[in-house]
Structures are given as structure tokens and as C-alpha cells.
Amino acid sequence: MLFDFANVLVFTALGLGFVGVNLLIGKLLRPSNPQERKLSTYECGEPASGSAWVNFNIRFYLVALIFIIFEVEIAFIFPVAAVFRRWIENGQGLFAFVEIMIFVGILFLGLIYAWAKGDLEWVKKVRV
Amino acid sequence: MQAYIDQLIRDGYFAGMPKEVVYAVAMVLAAFIVLSVFVAPLAGVTSWLERRVWARMQSRVGPNRVGPQGILQWLADGIKNLLKEDLIPSAADAKLFSLAPYVVFVGFLCAFVVIPFGSQLIVADLNIGILYILAVTSLVVVGILMAGWSSNNKWSLLGGMRSAAQIVSYEIPAGLSILTIVFLAGTMSMQGIIKAQGWAPWDWFLFNNPFTFAAFFLYFTAALAEGNRTPFDIPEAESELVAGYVTEYSGMRFLFFFFAEWGNLYVIGAVATTLFLGGWQVPPVTSDPILLGVLQFVVFFLKAYLWVFIAMWVRATLPRVRVDQLMALCWKYMVPLSFLCLLGTICWMLVFPKGNQIFSVAMFVLGLLIVAYFFKRVVFQIRHARPELYFKPHI
Predict the structure, then answer these.
(1) Residue numbers in A near B131 (CB within 8 A)
(2) End-to-end CA distance of chain B
(3) Which of B22, B88, B109 to mutate to test the interface with A (most CBs of A within 10 A)?
(4) Residue B311, Cβ neighbours under 10 Å: how many?
(5) Omega within 30 of 0 (cis) for the link into B353
(6) DSSP string, A51-113
(7) CB contact under 8 A, B346 and A56
(8) Residues of chain B with pLDDT under 70
């Protein structure tokens, strides 16, 4: 088991190393002639107007929130999914099914709620 | 892999060496072989092939000068990028900016640990295989967001934010479609999932029941969106965002984002093949282990590459969707549909605990009919196209 997971570590290290070595080789070969104009931010040729680090739209935050809930749900169903077949073989399939239904149903209600509240709309209509 | 090395150690090949050292050397060697012999040429050749395929589909020629039919174009591109000046904008956050390609690349490379190319040909058959793939490929989002934010460029920021919103949204239908298969197979290990299927198409999970059939297409669509592929490539939409999150990147750093994108395309195909299309399963035609291994590899590779080709085809055919359409498609159609697939599959398992062979064969025949009709339409379209639109195959 540890052997298998050590492979992941090796792949991570090799990935980092591969990018690093390539950039290092490049550093020895490529020209480096930075100028002020070259290093300026690209904004279609105009001088950049202000920083890009500004407040961004709240809808990205909403999407992230809904995502977190569903992703956690999926992570919780994975272990159940792995043993569900054994439950059926033990004759307890229906029981497990009802439990899964309750769990998924609650979250699905959440999706319907978000939908009804209009949080799934990218362009929200503002009620005047 | 561990079993092999243990066998070699028992045979006395590494006498006098500590076991840990042998293990470590073997792991590094395996990872290096996977990266340099398989992944790097694969991503490169895919980049060339994609350009050729598009060109043909758009009545152009495409890159055909470097090597026979231009097949070495990717090497030329790599060398060119290696020699290009690497600029870090003075307004950017230099640390995050240079770290982003590492994160994206590692996120994509780590997926290759658990991709099973054959019954013996896998780096490590982790018991949480498919969950692990979901987890590490999520690293790509982090990298893209880092690139977008650190560039301090409005195009990059918009591209990075859109990409993050898109990838995390489509992770839900993809995860739910994968879950249907975990339910059916009763295991998360990639080899276990393949072994739960058979070599015959009607033993594949794709034709197991109507819900997995739908789940496959949901998975493929969601995976395309996660890989930032057209029709879901608004994060780098060149017509509105210059180059999205890679606007400020140049040279090798720029290259690594696309290296990961083209490599990811193969990961998508490989995961789809493993989960739905029976993976490396081949009919029992030979008992020679080496021949069998080669056959399994070829079958797996072709099945996975078919989906890479279809992704290219889709990219050449479909226009880009708008950002609000993209989010609506995910949350209002694909998420409820994939919930339906999940519950449908569970019900099917309760009704037919051993599966329904007759139904699977019928599904398979239906699938064949759909493909046949599709090709009939394609042939019809080609015959009726204007002759001057034909490409000349020998340029």
C-alpha cells in the first residue's frame, strides 16, 4: 500500500523536476533582455489603466459555494458506492437505497432552492 | 509493479542492496519512462495531430513541413519555445506567476499513476484510483487560478475566474457520472473497475443500462469542459479575452499550460475507456503474457485515442458557448440529469443484481445502429459537398 502511494510522491517530484529542469535549460539558452516596455502589462497596446487586482463579481463566489456543497456530497457517496453491491448481496439493498435517497434528496432540495432563488442564473434579474 | 520487483529481488538480481533503494530506483525509473517515453511524445503528437485534423476539417493543409507529414512539428515548437525569452511582467506577482505552470503540470502528470494500460501495465493500482484522479486533476484549477490572478492583467483575471467557475461546476456532473460506475463496480480501483467488465461490448458498463449510457455522454461533455476544450473554452477565448489566463506567459512557461491541456485530453479518454468501455479487456486469443500485454496496450490506447480524436472533431465543429449558457447547461441540465443517472443505476442494480444480459446486447445493437446512421449522414454530407471543398490528401 505504501509502495503504491510512494509512486504518487515520485510522480509529483518528477513533474516538478521536469518543469524546473526545462526552465533551467531554457534559462541557459534563451536571451534575457528585459525592457520597461516589454515588461508592461498587456492591454491591447494601450498603457494599462490601473491594477487588475480589483473586486470581482459575487457570482463566482456563489458558484464556488454551491460547488463545495455538492463536491462534499460526492466525496461522501464514494465510500457508500464502493460497498453498495455487498449490501445488495446481503439482502439489505433496499435499506441502503432508502438511506442514499434521503441523503441525495436533501441535497437535491438544496439545488432546487438555489434554482428557485435564482442563484443559478448567471445574469440575475434585479427586481425593482 | 511491486510484485515484479519482489520477484526480481527473490531471484537474486539485486543481491546486497537494501530493498528500499531498489524500490526507490524502480519508482523513479518507472515515472521517468512514463513521462519521457509516453506522456511527452503523446502530448506533442496530439498537438500536431490536432492541428492537422482541424486543418483538414477546414479545407486547409496544416503543419506539414517538419518531418514526414509534419509529425515532428511538436519538437520544433518545443525547441522554439525553449529559446524564447521568458518575460515576467513587472506588475505581476512574480512568485505565483512562475509557480503556476508547475502546479498545472503536476496536476496533470499525477493522473498517469493510476491509468491502467494493461492487466500488468500500471504504475500503481491505488485502491482509491478514480477518486485519486478526481482529486489530482483538480490541482489544474488551482494552477489556472494562480496564473490568472498573479498576471495582474484584466484578461488573465477574467480568464482565470471563468475557468475556475467552469471547472468546478463541471466537476459535479463528472463526479456523479463516475459515481454511477463506482456503484456498479463496487470498487474505486481502476483495475477493479476494468475487471468488473468483460471484453465483449455488451459486458461494458456503457451498455449495462440506459442510465450508464447517458452517464457516459454526461461524463465526456463534463470532461471536455473541465479540460477547457471547445465548445467550453471561454477561459481562453481568443476572440474576447486575448489568450485568457495565459495572456502574460511566454516561452517555456506558456508551453507547459498547453502540454498539460493536450496531455489531459488523453487522460479524459483513458478514464472514459476505463470506466465505460471495458479498458484493456481483450478476447482470450493468446496465452503468451507478453503478446497479451501488447494487445491490451494497443486496445486501450486506441479506445482512449478515439475519444481524443472525437474531442478534436468537436473542437473543429462546434462554436463556443456563451458564459451564461455554459453555467445554465451545467447546473440546470447536466447536474439534475446526472443525479437521475445515479439513482436510475442504483434502482437498476436493485432490480437486476446480476445485470441484464439481453438488455445489454439490445443496447449494444442500438448503439451500433446509431453509429451506422451517423456515418451514413457523414458520407452523404461529403458526397454532396462542393468538389472544390475537397482537401487534397497529398500536399
Answers:
(1) 75, 78
(2) 46
(3) B109
(4) 22
(5) no
(6) -S-----HHHHHHHHHHHHHHHHHHHHHHHHHHHHHHHHTT-HHHHHHHHHHHHHHHHHHHHH
(7) no
(8) 1, 235, 237-238, 385-395
